[in-house]
Amino acid sequence: MKNISFVAIISLLLLSCSKELDQTPISEVGSNNFYKNTEDFEDAVTGIYSTLDIYPNEQFYLSEMRSDNLYGVTETGVRPYEKINNFDLTIATNEDVSREWDNDYTGIMRANTVLDEISEDAVPDANIRNRMIAEAKFLRAFFYFDLVRLYGKVPILDHVYTPTETLNISRSPVSEVYDLIISDLNEAVLNLPESYPNNLVGKATSWAAKALLGKVYLTRSGPTYGIEGPGLDSGEYDKALALFNDIIVNGPFGFVDDYPAIFAYDNEHNPEIIFDIEFITGGTGAGASYPSISVPNGYLEANDVGFPNGEDRKEVSADLIAAYPDGDIRVDFNILMGYTDQNDHFNPSPFFVKFINLNEAGQDRFDWGLNYPVIRYTDILLMKAEAILMGNAGNSADVDNIINLVRKRAGLDDVTNVDLDMYLAERRREFASESKRWYSLVRTGKVLEVMNAWIPEEDVQNRMNLMDANQIIYPIPSDQITVKEGLYEQNPGYN
Questions:
Q1: CATH number, domain at 38?
Q2: pLDDT of 179-196, one tens digit each?
């Protein structure tokens, strides 16, 4: 069962916290000594977690929609996600591009507020105080990692600044952003607990910090593509591998044999889940909207969920569907090949239904009670295989064993001599709709090759542009560029 106490606190904060989205770059002048004691700081830390509420949605639009898993083109071409799908060069004003930037910096501001304000007087128990600091640093690292993967260079705000002060802080090199991320995560590893009592399940653990740190090393080890993006060609696959092995050997997690059970509404916090984002339904204000954003409005209307919302098309690519071998149980669980609308008309447009259970619908299409799996155990296993393949570190036989473990759960036969392309294909099938495909292609050096082969085959409406290396990251949002002339330069390749 979901932890009601922790989620209930988040729900209150989601309703009451004001996100200073009109202030660019994002910052805020402290808390005016609002936080006085341990309880106040527990609420403040929970407020940082509450910033994650839109993370699943924005990852879908900025990652899954960007990849070869979706072909999101409508007849009218007016949806914001279509320009992302199409590799449009004028997306600096796109609402999703700016919303994720704003939200990440809101989370960073909240983390910095805790880190700046917490003291021995306010939180006398050193263990509790150190745990709160570690949570704030884990989440700050989480937000900065999201930023660096999406935008490349970003301004480093490592404590609370006034709006005037932020106008003198330019974007830092990617390597310096990673330095802060790694420093924060190393401290989180040391000071976060391995687990929590039941009333606090859902908070970041030391295992979650190790998992995220391993992904950070894996990502910055990837190729640079000649841009100032997330890859630094640092060759730290051994560091990533050591962290993944630690989690596999010593962690309290496990491989769930039943694939659909990983995502069941009545099976949250199962052994697969290393870190998730907590949601609860029932009119609390903390329900999730991400389960329904991948499905057509007509499907929801036909099933008495939600309300009309105009044209909506986020079609699963034919290439992804064809990538599932006969007998793979994941295809039917992940994808619905069409639906019958309220007029008894069948719409043969495939879409993701991985996170939808119509029997669990809340008050509307924005109110689902399913936690969002950010890092799960299968991801750790597969990233271990990736570290071995990319870094020539570890035992290559382990790669085959990992891939075959995943394939067996999917109902598929074993394979041998797994190479990078076979690995990426299996990872794609496993994590469809979990917004991991784009990042996998980027960090393994395959994104240009794969996407530019896929676009001409899939783009039946001739809307998409071929991509170049500049489109591996997004533009800096235009409202950030205009806040002060010369403070930020736009990422190359964007208008």
A1: 1.25.40.390
A2: 999 999 999 999 999 999
